[in-house]
Amino acid sequence: MTSTILPTEDLPAFPLSRRGDVLPPEAERLRAEQPIARVRTMTGDEAWLVSSYRLAKQVLEDERFSLKDTANPGVPRQYALTIPPEVVDNMGNINSAGLRDAVMRTLSPRADRELGSRLEATAHRLLDALIAQGPPADLRDGFTEPYSAALHCRLLGIPTDDWRRLMSGIDVAFVTSPAPFEGSAPNWYKDLGYMVERLNADPAPTEGLLGRFVALRRSPDVSDQVSDDLLATVALSLFGAGAVSTSAFLQHAIIALARQPELADRLRAEPAVIGRAVDELLRYNLSIGDALPRIALADVTVGEVEVKAGELVLVLIEGANYDPAVFPDPERIDFDRASNPHLAFGGGRHFCPASALGRTHAEIALAALVERLPQLRLALPVEQLAWRPGFIKRLLERLPVLW
C-alpha cells in the first residue's frame, strides 16, 4: 500500500474528537488506510500522525525521535507551549543533575511500605463520605481527584490538604492552545513558588521526594549542580503529570464498569483478576487524548514514509492500543486477554517510570469501588457527559453516578 500525501490545504486537523467514551472513527480509518499520515495541528504546523501499533512502537523506541526537542524554539508543535520549556525537558535535567535515583525511588511502590494501606484507607474514607451524602454524587470531585491527589501529595511529602490548590493549577497548566495565553506563565510560577516554599520550609521536609531532595542538596557531590527552581520544577512536573493521569484513567475505568456491570460483578467475585483487569482497562481507555509528540533528529523511514529531520511525529496511542493486529476484537473489554502489550505507559526510554505505582493506585481504587458501590451506574446518559475541551487529557468536568 502506498501512502497518499494530501495537498497542504487538505490536511486533516488534529487532535481528534475530545469525547472519551467513543473511539474516534478517524483513528480506525487512518490505521487501516494510512498508518502514518500527514495532519495539521492546532498551531497550524504539519506533523506525521502514527496510528498503528507497529509504527507507534518503532517511533517510541527509536532514540532518533526526541521528546526533549519538542520544546526547542522554532520546531513544529502539537500545540503552543503553555508551560516553560524546562518542564518538557525536566527528565533530561533529572539525569544531568544526578537526581534520577531520588525520583525513581519515590515512584517505586516498594519505597513506602505503608502506601498500599494508606491508599486503601483514603479510598474508603472518600467512599464513606459519598455514601453518607447519598446518590447521585460526582465521583470526579468526590473520589478520582482527591484520591489521586492524595497519593501524589504523599509521594512529594507535602500536606494532603493542599491538593485542591495544586489541582486547580493543573486546570490551567495543561490547557492545549494554538497560541500562548496570558495566564499560563503566572499560573506556573505561582505553583513553582509553592514548591520552593515547601522545599525550604522550617522544619525541612523529611518525607517523600522533597525530603530526598533536601538530603541530596546537602551532599557535597551534587549541591553545586542543583537549584531550588530545578528541584521545584521536577516536583511540580511529577505532581501534575501523575495526578491528572491517574485521575483521568480512573474516570474512564469507572465509565466502563458502570456501562458494563458484568465486569464489576466479576471483579467482586474474582478479586485475583484485578491486575489483568487494570491492564485491560489501561489498553481500552481513551484518556490520553492528544498523541505523544516526538521531533525527528535524523531522516528515518517509518512505514512507507521517510520522515525528515526536524519534522514532528505524533504517536496516537488509542490507534495503537485498538490495533486488531495485536489486540483481537479490540473494542471488547477482555480481562482474560492472553497478551496485552499496550502502550498506555508509552515506550522506549520515556516509558512511564511510575507504571507500577499507577497500577497499584488503580487496583486499590477499583477494588474499593466495586465493593462499596455494587450497583454503580451513570446518573445520566453517557452522551450527556461533559468532556473538557482543549485539555491535554480527555477529562470529564463531572462524573455523576448512582448506586
Automatic annotation (TrEMBL):
Keywords: Heme, Iron, Metal-binding, Monooxygenase, Oxidoreductase
Keyword ATP-binding (UniProt): no
InterPro entries in the record: Cyt_P450, Cyt_P450_B, Cyt_P450_CS, Cyt_P450_sf
Coiled coil: none
Pfam families: p450
UniProt cross-references to SUPFAM superfamilies, sorted A to Z: Cytochrome P450
Domain of life: Bacteria
Keyword Plastid: no
The family this protein is said to belong to: Belongs to the cytochrome P450 family.
Protein name: Mycocyclosin synthase Cyp121
Organism: Kitasatospora nipponensis
